[in-house]
Amino acid sequence: MKIILTGGAGFLGSHTAVELVNEGYEPIIIDDFRNSKSFIIDNIEKIIGRKVIFHCADIGDQNKVSTIIKNEKPAGLIHFAADKAVNESVLNPLKYYHNNIGNLIKLLEVINNFNLSSFIFSSSCTVYGEPSCIPVNEKTPIQPAFSPYGYTKQVGEKILTDFFKTKKQTSLTILRYFNPIGAHPSSLIGELPLGIPSNLVPHLTQTAIGKRKQLTIFGNDYNTADGTCIRDYIHVVDLARAHVLSLKNKIMSNNVYNVGVGKGSSVLELVNCFEEINNLNVNYQFGDRRSGDVPEIYADNSLIKKKLNWEPKFSLKDALQHAWNWELELKSKYKVD
Ligand code: UFG
User: Fold this and answer.
1) How far is the CA of 166 from the centre of ligand 1 (A)?
2) Which of its termini does the chain have fewer beta carbons within 10 Å around, N or C?
3) Quick count: other Cβ atoms within 10 Å of Cβ 253?
4) What confidence tens digit (pLDDT) does each residue in 297-309 have?
5) Where are the domains of the chain?
6) How far is the centre of ligand 1, averaged over its atoms, from the C-alpha of 230 (Å)?
7) pTM value?
C-alpha cells in the first residue's frame, strides 16, 4: 500500500518512511530539501536495504503534486511538509502563513480530485497554549495561539476537519506531537537543524560536540521543582510508529490524538540525563526566560494507547544517546552547516 509523505526527507518524515517499510507499506517521499539534505534519502535506503520512491517537488506546485498522485495512486497521505520554528514564525509570520496554510490549501485542492482512504496531519501540543490543567487530553480547550506557528497548527486542524467532512471516504487523523527528540538507532538519520538550532536537544548536542560555545537554559525561576520548564520528550521512532498505527487502525471520525510519553521532564533533568548517559560535561548557563514558553506541559496519552494500541518503546535515556550518536555521525561523515 503506497503512502505519500510530504516532507518525507525531514526529521519526522524520514523516520516515518522507515517505520512504514518495516510494516509493509510503500512510502512515496515528496520533498524539495529546503529543510533537509539529499543524503537522508540515501541513508533511508541503507536502513531499509533497498530503493525508496522519491520525488523532488515543492508541495505548493499543484501540477507536479497532482501528476505524482495520479501516477503513484497512493492509498494515503501523511502531511509533514511545514515550517516549525516558533521564533522564526514570530519574525517572519508570512512565511508560516504561506507554507503551513497556503500550501496546505493547495494540497487539499489537489487531493480533492483523488480518493485517498487516509490523511494524517502533523499537529502540535502548541494548540493547547498554556493549559490550566496538566496533563492535557484531547478535550483540553484550544487556547489563543502563542505564535504564528501555533496559529497555523490550529487553523490547519480546522481547515482539514471542515474539508474532510466533504470527503466521507477519507479518514482524517490529527496527531498532536509533544517534543520529538532522538534519532534512528542506526545513526543514519536524525534531525538536521539549519543554522543555530532553536530546539533544546540539537542545541545541546551541538554544544557538547563544540559547534556551539554554550547552552543557555531559558529560565530557572519557573514554578517547577527545579525551576526549569517541563516538557514531554518523545523518541522520534515512537512518534513515527504512531503514524503507522494510525494507518493500520483507520477509524472514520474524530481521530485526534496526543502523541507524547505522558511524563514531564524538566530542562535540567534532560541536560543531566544527557551528561550521565553519554559520559560528558556540557557547558551550560542559566539565562532569562524565553518569551512564549509555557512553564509545563505533558500529555495524557491514554486515548492513543487505548484506541491505537500505541506504547512508547524508547526511554529519555535512549533518545539522548541516539541524538548524541547522530551528532557524532554528522561530524565524522557529513558537512552540515
Ligand atoms: N530550551 C532551553 N535552551 C535552548 C532551547 C530550548 O532552555 O537553547 C528550553 C525551552 O525554553 C523549553 C524547552 O527547552 O523550556 C524545550 O524547548 P524546545 O524549543 O526544544 O521545544 P518547545 O517546547 O519550545 O517547542 C516544541 C516544538 C514546537 C511546538 C512546541 C509546543 O519544538 O514545534 O513544542 O509547545 F510547537
Assistant:
1) 36
2) C
3) 9
4) 999 999 999 999 9
5) 2-181+235-260+299-312
6) 10
7) 0.97
